[in-house]
Write a structure and sequence with these properties.
Layout lengths: L4 E7 L4 H14 L4 E7 L1 H9 L5 E3 L22 E5 L1 H4 L13 E5 L4 H12 L5 E6 L2 H9 L4 E5 H9 L4 E2 L1
């Protein structure tokens, strides 16, 4: 008997930790499932999904409405976003979020839905940050945060291990 196969598309802005959680759930259903993972932009993944070259797409944006009635988007879960920094930089933040003003920030690209939520949070609290870098790749954002190049808004799954080991501090 041939094992079931899942063709999974992953948008570039999705953390590998989120993908690992999806894989854990897939393998909980069928340990012998063969999974092929393809990365790409939302547009590229939508096109592959529409042509039935993918079975499922993990994205932080719902593009099912653009594909027609036979496609549905589902919110499979949410992952909290945390502001984190290396210990030396975190000591400059005594009062969160007001002390973020003027500190170097590492942010996702402006069109990213997580970035839009971060921008709304900062705007609501009247925080003017110094954008050190705008990055499309979530894992690169994580790496730069660990190198101390700025405060980053990371998903809790990505930040968890570094926070537990003291490499990053949740603000």
């Amino acid at each position: 008997m041939t094992p079931a196969r899942l063709r999974l598309g992953v948008a570039g802005a999705i953390s590998r930790h989120v993908v690992a959680q999806v894989l854990d759930r897939v393998y909980a259903i069928d340990r012998k499932m063969q999974v092929g993972i393809v990365g790409g932009s939302a547009g590229d993944l939508a096109e592959r999904l529409e042509k039935h070259r993918l079975d499922l797409v993990v994205s932080n944006a719902d593009f099912s409405g653009e594909l027609g009635v036979e496609f549905r988007g589902r919110l499979a879960g949410t992952v909290p976003i945390e502001f984190v920094a290396i210990p030396a930089l975190s000591r400059r933040v005594k009062r969160f979020p007001s002390d973020l003003s003027g500190l170097p920030m590492l942010l996702m690209a402006p069109e990213n839905p997580v970035r839009k939520e971060v921008d709304l949070f900062l705007c609501r609290h009247k925080i003017q940050v110094s954008v050190e870098a705008e990055i499309e790749d979530f894992d690169l954002l994580h790496l730069l945060a660990r190198r101390g190049q700025g405060i980053a808004a990371l998903d809790s799954l990505t930040a968890r291990r570094d926070v537990a080991q003291g490499r990053l501090v949740k603000l």
